[in-house]
Amino acid sequence: MRSHIEFRSSELLGAHDDGGAPQGQEVAKLLRSGLPERGFHVEGMSSEDWGWRVKISHPAFPLWIGCGFYPELEDGMLCFIEPSKPYVRRWLKRVSTTEVVELLASALESTLRKSGKAQDLRWWSEDEITRG
């Protein structure tokens, strides 16, 4: 299941010396405007200590995308979809997330590519996700 995508972008990367403010706001703004065109309603964005969260409206389970700096690359960014597992538990039942997460992954990648501001897009393998 695709849930973590890394890419390079000097245009979407904020300043690194801005007093420790979280990175990823420009990517979150891009997703807030681009995902509705692909059928996903964005409920809002919020700053976190690790980056920015883009909350997606979904009645069956909480769904969101995290956006932040990826320090392995000088101009690296990482977006990850939660939930990143094929199932979640809701009211003592297993609910499959695979179909919705895959649709969101396609919309995320399409939005990044269409912007022309993201290069070298690469989805992480399951092993990379597990290693963190």
What are the defining features of this structure?
33% strand; 6-stranded antiparallel beta sheet; TATA-Binding Protein; 3 helices; alpha+beta; two-stranded antiparallel sheet; 132 residues; globular
Description of the molecule:
- This protein has 132 residues and is of the alpha+beta class.
- The chain has a single domain, classed as TATA-Binding Protein (2-Layer Sandwich).
- Helix content is 26%, strand content 33%.
- The protein contains three helices and eight strands.
- The chain has helices at residues 25-34, 98-115, 126-131; strands at residues 4-8, 42-47, 52-56, 63-69, 76-82, 87-90, 93-96, 119-123.
- The strands form two sheets. Strands 2-3-4-5-1-8 form a six-stranded antiparallel beta sheet, covered by helices on one side. A two-stranded antiparallel sheet has the order 6-7.
- Strand 4 and strand 5 (76-82) form a beta hairpin.
Secondary structure: elements and pairs:
Blueprint (H helix, E strand, L loop, with lengths): L3 E5 L16 H10 L7 E6 L4 E5 L6 E7 L6 E7 L4 E4 L2 E4 L1 H18 L3 E5 L2 H6 L1
